[in-house]
Amino acid sequence: MLGLGGGLAAAATLTACGQNNPLDGGSSATPGAGESSSMGSEAPMGDKPSLTQWYHQYGEEGVKEATERYAAEYEAATVTVKWNPGDYNSILAAQLLTDDVPDVFEAEQGGSLDQIRSGQLEDLTELIGDAKDDFNPAVMKRFTFEDKIHGIPQTIDMQLLYYRPSLLEAAGVEPPTTMEELIAATNAVKTDSMGGFFAGNDGGIGVLGTMFIWSAGYEQLNEDRTEAAFLNEDFYNGLVAFRDFSKSGGVVQAASAEWFSPDAFINEEVAFQWGGLWSLPAIKEAFGDDVGVLPFPAIGGNGRPSVPFGAFGACVAAEGKNVDASKEFVKWLWIDQEDKQVDFSDAYGTHIPAKPALVAQATQLADGPGADAAQFVSDSGFANDIMWSGAIGEKYGAALSNVIKNDADPAAEFEPLKALIASELEKLKG
Amino acid sequence: MSNATSSTIAPASPSTGRPGLWRRLRGHQGRNLWFAAFVAPFLLGLMAFVYLPIVWSAYLSFFEARNTVNPTRFVGLDNYTYLLNDGLFIQSLLTFVAFALFIVPTTYVASLGLALLLNNLRWGQAFFRSVFFIPTAVSYVIAAIVWRFAFFSGARFGLLNQAITAAGGDQVNWLGGTNDLYWVALVSVRLWLQTGFYMILLIAGLQRIPQETYEAAALDGAAGWRLLRFITLPQLKATSVAVILLLLINAFQAFDEFYNMLGSIGSYPPYARPPLVHLYLIAVGGGQQDLGVGGAGTMILTAIIVLFGVGQNFILNRSNT
């Protein structure tokens, strides 16, 4: 009767199964099943060192085979790829605490604060050297912590706003770049059967979240990471504007699918949908050329458009048995082998190559919405600050929900976050 | 006394000293041995999966433990003060109270009503018992998903919304949080899932009431409501107390239907958040594992559940005497 564990163990989340979406931090599928190979890293074959390389489970067909092919082509070491279905972050975190660490592995946004702090990641700053200028600047900025780089970006995923140019033309409105324009355009195009703007069945609060900070023209934290940098009138006014937008019926509160699925947009339930880049192929198949994409519009006088991105970075375990060989392999695959980088991003689903120069070679991003999306990340890409912790995110989301759904006063609701964020950052500084 | 007998036997035949001890350990007909053999697997499981984690959580709760179960930074009671000052945690306890105040009596009355109806049924009792019991076998997760996407979908495709719009009403946003109607979904799924189970417990309780009591009461002229009020309910007291406490603890552990009906990837709204959901989000949600604060929460919840357990024993003992 005291079985507290029961509820937790039986918990299952509604994750976007099969979607490859690095932007979603925690999924909690059951770990365990499926291990592609278990060659020990300690037994060198011939003269060549043996390395293990870890990936999370990509949803798209063929990615696993591709990573195995890349590994097989590498001649200076025998690389064994291990595919990790389930909650990759937890599995990786647990394995990194043991003696048997994977030599090379991918980590969200190039490694977490904990991983960097506890010295689990090898410093790759010198390895990447000047090549870092070849990578997407927004991603590289996020991958750099205290002037050090611990992961080489593999590929980029992102979210953006889908619309149908034909609908806007018929209503005589331009693609919206500001919140006011989005509200006006929504009111112009929505009909009885087709709703306006959709970003999930929670009214968009979950997925839009920190977009309200970035699009209002602010950052989550100040330069020194000692306090919040967004708790001001502009931000509060933006929330009120979105609340009015929601209450006026412009924001669709419920659709047949979630934001991460293209279905609501394809079913013509909504005129604008916030979604993932991964939905682009399905949306293009449904509407052909009649597909446009936008970043989240600028909010208020200080505003600017913004899109969130997520990228896995290839990291090297500092405690690995062949650190130098591992670094060489990472350099070979993720810095030098550009054809493989394009293949990885473009051949199995839609992702953006981590190097802007390669975007033109990605067939899906050559022109139209795909090319726009790639540009958005370079120009307006944002990602959660490395110190924007789960606890801060939780409190932020709760305040946001109270403001937008329960008519709470934004200044009063967000006031407690000031102290909370400061004390959390103090803790994280360690 | 056993001391006296063994000391008189031991000097007489020293060679039997050992078997004597062994025999005493084994017990009469090896009862102790069998006891150990049957209890050990369960006890080991309980130790490994319940008590050890609780003890470990207690240990973690005094440390700054993020993404690690071997923390080094001792923080004393910081995690506890953090949680007790956490508005969302306090609110989650209040959510539990509100939820329990509603779901416990409702389930009890519904289960008792069904049990009374079925207990007096002359034919088809087994059939109806199975009909009402079957939902118990359904997973909370699956039921929650069916409720979320089929019945209570806020889109016009939702079953309830289709019925409402067909009747000329407006589409209702059941789970979106712009109103309190998500409680209808949360309460109805739990009622559907658990009423049948408690009905069975209560039927078992009803069948233990001696028929003669009713006959005697009938001779005294009692019937209908008076029989229920003065014979059935008092005789059912022990079962009722057990059922109500089970319901209370189940309500306290509510997680699955909440999380699967209201949560979306990586996020959960601040409303309708029971304690376990809140702690889950702290301990494993949001890409961060704050096991220190999570451990402190586990301790607080464990304390509350232990209080319930002790209260249950107390009430049961009193009702037995």
Task: Considering the chains and any ligands shown, give keywords for the structure.
heterodimer; A: 430 residues; alpha/beta; D-Maltodextrin-Binding Protein, domain 2; 2 domains; 11-stranded mixed sheet; two-stranded antiparallel ribbon; 39% helix; globular; disordered N terminus; B: 321 residues; mainly alpha; MetI-like fold; two-stranded antiparallel sheet; 15 helices; 70% helix
Q: Could you explain how this protein is built, in words?
A:
Mean pLDDT of chain A is 88; it is low at 1-45. Chain A contains 18 helices and 13 strands. Chain A has 430 residues and is an alpha/beta fold. Chain A has 2 domains: 14-157 and 310-382, Periplasmic binding protein-like II (D-Maltodextrin-Binding Protein, domain 2, 3-Layer(aba) Sandwich); 158-308 and 387-429, 3-Layer(aba) Sandwich (D-Maltodextrin-Binding Protein, domain 2). The relative contact order of chain A is 0.16. Chain B has 2 domains: 2-60, no CATH class; 78-320, MetI-like (MetI-like fold, Orthogonal Bundle). In chain B, 70% of the residues lie in helices and 1% in strands. Chain B has helices at 2-9, 17-26, 31-60, 78-84, 87-119, 125-133, 140-151, 159-166, 182-207, 211-219, 225-235, 237-252, 256-262, 275-283, 291-320; strands at 63-64, 73-74. Chain B has a two-stranded antiparallel ribbon. In chain B, a hairpin with an 8-residue loop joins strand 1 (63-64) and strand 2 (73-74). At the A-B interface, helix 1, helix 3, helix 9 and helix 17 of A face helix 3, helix 7, helix 13, helix 14 and helix 15 of B.
